[in-house]
Design brief:
- The protein is of the alpha+beta class.
- It has a single domain, classed as Gcn5-related N-acetyltransferase (GNAT) (Aminopeptidase), CATH 3.40.630.
- 30% of the residues lie in helices and 34% in strands.
- The protein has 6 helices and 8 strands, in the order ββαααβββαβαββα.
- The radius of gyration is 16 Å and the shape is globular.
- The protein binds coenzyme A.
- The site of coenzyme A has 20 residues, from strand 5, helix 4 and helix 5.
């Protein structure tokens, strides 16, 4: 199965594996309460981000189900690292995957997350032969829900208070895209 050795390129972005030198840029993202508001973790310390980077450095391939491809999003023009995008391979038998994404707030509102997620979904449908890719978000995370809708994903579920996190009940939207629908769109 494929290893991402050379970056996936889009019009404005490079999606590439994480490297140790991403520590400062990633710490600037994952330490922010506004970024972490609807994610599972609390804002991370620099030491915690160093451990995250170490883990992410090895997440450059989808060898088998259960693997996560985790890529840094960098601007093509400057090389500045502005966020991350990932694809989880949930099931080989059922050809199911899931996308995730995070952008530094200075770079939100420009379509970069949509561009990155679109590229990693194309990778999943083409290289891993996925049949269905889902994206989930807290039902209050309107920027994330808008992104998934912009990509043409269909809202399939609204789980009410399905998880207890950070001292509150969380409700979740589940969006999905089938390969045939993706092919029709692109
Ligand atoms: C979720 C998240 C990645 C969305 O980022 P984003 O910048 O809003 O998403 P996009 O890259 O798709 O940008 C879309 C916005 O850019 C605007 N835009 C400007 N130029 C654009 C272009 N060339 N192409 C597309 N959109 C463009 C769109 O109109 C849209 O604005 P709107 O949402 O106000 O309508 C971001 O809010 C984030 O990182 N949040 C914190 C982490 C998080 O919650 N992650 C998701 C967990 S489920």
């Amino acid at each position: 199965m494929p290893t991402v050795t050379s970056p996936i390129q889009t019009d404005r972005l490079l999606l590439r594996p994480f490297v140790a030198a991403d520590l400062d840029a990633l710490a600037n993202i994952l330490a922010r309460p506004d970024v972490m508001r609807y994610l599972d973790d609390d804002p991370l310390t620099r030491d915690e981000v160093a451990a995250v980077i170490h883990e992410r450095e090895g997440m450059n391939r989808l060898d088998t189900q259960g693997d996560t491809l985790m890529l840094a999003i960098a601007l093509r023009d400057s090389g500045v690292m502005i966020g991350s995008v990932n694809l989880i391979w949930h099931s080989q038998e059922h050809a199911q995957g899931e996308v995730g994404y995070t952008l530094h707030p200075d770079h939100q509102g420009k379509g970069y997350a949509s561009e990155a997620v679109r590229a990693i979904m194309t990778y999943g449908f083409r290289e891993i032969d996925l049949h269905r890719i889902v994206g989930t978000c807290d039902d209050r995370n309107s920027a994330s829900a808008r992104l998934l809708e912009r990509l043409g994903m269909r809202r399939e579920a609204h789980f009410r208070e399905h998880a207890w996190r950070k001292g509150e009940w969380r409700s979740q939207y589940v969006y999905a895209m089938l390969r045939d629908a993706w092919r029709d769109l692109h």
